[in-house]
TrEMBL record:
This is Interferon-inducible double-stranded RNA-dependent kinase activator A. Residues 12-81 form the DRBM domain. It comes from Brachionus plicatilis (Marine rotifer). InterPro entries: dsRBD_dom (IPR014720), RLC_Component (IPR051247). It comes from the Eukaryota. SUPFAM superfamilies: dsRNA-binding domain-like (SSF54768). Keywords: Kinase, RNA-binding, Transferase. The keyword Cytoplasm does not apply. One of its GO terms (molecular function) is siRNA binding.
Length: 348
């Protein structure tokens, strides 16, 4: 995109984005709105922003205008992070740092009154979550962790559970009141060698946002793949084998079909089979759409909340095809687990 777009009269996210699209001769952004009422009968808006089907973002706000600006701001962040033009990236970085609405974006990412899993209200700003510099992980696992955290309603509790499991010191949270008049708080969250900070309009929001970022860094660090003691390592293997044994020795209908049928040729609904398997074997799974890095193909991730947590991806010409392929790979993996010794799986 063209970097010669800065206009002093358009110092809002939407104004800058429109200006950038205009001088770059690409389609103007399109927006979709939805009004939602939460359990406390509070109304807010969600806004989806698209540019040329290549970039998309979602944001929310108490006003439609606020949600629109926040969605536009997230698109600008994506452009900044993905731009091969260093001058353009530098200008976007300078402009966004000087926007008053920049801080509001962090605040709106988590709404205290809307944190249930069912309405997908825990919105994570992907560009605020940086992968650990010391570890390289593949794109599917990276997306799976982000999508998992998007559903996480208790990041503080999860970090404390990790501390208990691996006999580590509990996390420490340092909260500071930044201003007596503006109701802004900062929180520094520390756990072991990791540290993250965030800002929120309440202490609870600041602590929650810092915890999400900290939990992301923990999960991408590889720390959870290595138990700190021999006792813990043995316990971890025992838990994993218990899940495998459950599938191996189960005689319930869904797993029996998976064991006995040729999944490559059998005509059945893999999605219905997976739903039945989850009910019978008492585990949960989630399917999330992700942006495909292959042109003209859709992509998705499916992860099973078991021990170990299983993650599989799929591509297809349509989103349904992508989901079917991801489920197929998962079912093939479960069939292999039941046939011989359990193969190694991705755990995070």
């Amino acid at each position: 995109m063209n970097q010669n777009f800065v206009s002093q009269n358009n110092q809002t996210p939407l104004g800058i984005l429109n200006n950038l699209c205009s001088v770059s001769k690409v389609p103007m952004p399109t927006f979709e709105f939805e009004q939602i009422q939460n359990k406390d009968n509070d109304l807010y808006f969600t806004c989806k922003c698209y540019i040329n089907e290549q970039f998309q973002s979602v944001a929310k706000g108490k006003k439609k205008k606020t949600a629109k600006h926040l969605a536009a701001l997230r698109i600008l962040r994506m452009l900044k992070e993905n731009s091969s033009n260093s001058e353009l990236a530098a200008k976007l970085d300078f402009i966004m740092k000087n926007m008053e609405i920049f801080a509001e974006d962090q605040i709106s990412s988590f709404d205290e009154t809307n944190n249930s899993i069912s309405n997908n209200s825990s919105i994570i700003n992907e560009n605020d979550l940086e992968n650990s510099e010391n570890v390289q992980i593949d794109s599917f696992k990276f997306e799976a962790i982000k999508n998992y955290l998007a559903k996480c309603t208790n990041p503080i509790g999860e970090i404390k559970m990790i501390a208990d499991k691996y006999s580590m010191k509990q996390p420490v949270f340092i909260i500071e009141d930044l201003s007596e008049n503006s109701n802004k708080f900062s929180c520094v969250a520390k756990f072991g060698e990791f540290s993250e900070s965030a800002i929120g309009r309440t202490k609870k929001l600041a602590k929650r946002y810092a915890s999400i970022k900290l939990l992301f860094k923990i999960k991408t660090s590889g720390m959870l793949d290595h138990c700190p003691s021999k006792t813990k390592s043995c316990h971890k293997i025992e838990i994993n084998q218990k899940f495998y044994d459950q599938l191996k020795f189960s005689e319930k209908k869904a797993i029996s079909i998976i064991k006995s049928k040729n999944l490559k040729t059998q005509q059945f609904s893999s999605r219905i089979l997976l739903e039945q398997l989850a009910r019978e074997e008492n585990f949960e799974y989630q399917i999330n759409e992700i942006v495909s890095n292959i042109e003209d193909l859709k992509a998705c991730l499916i992860y099973v909340n078991a021990s170990p947590q299983l993650v599989f991806g799929g591509h297809g010409k349509t989103q349904d095809d992508a989901i079917k392929n991801a489920i197929f790979f998962l079912l093939i993996h479960l069939k292999d687990i039941c046939s011989k010794d359990a193969p190694k799986s991705e755990i995070f």
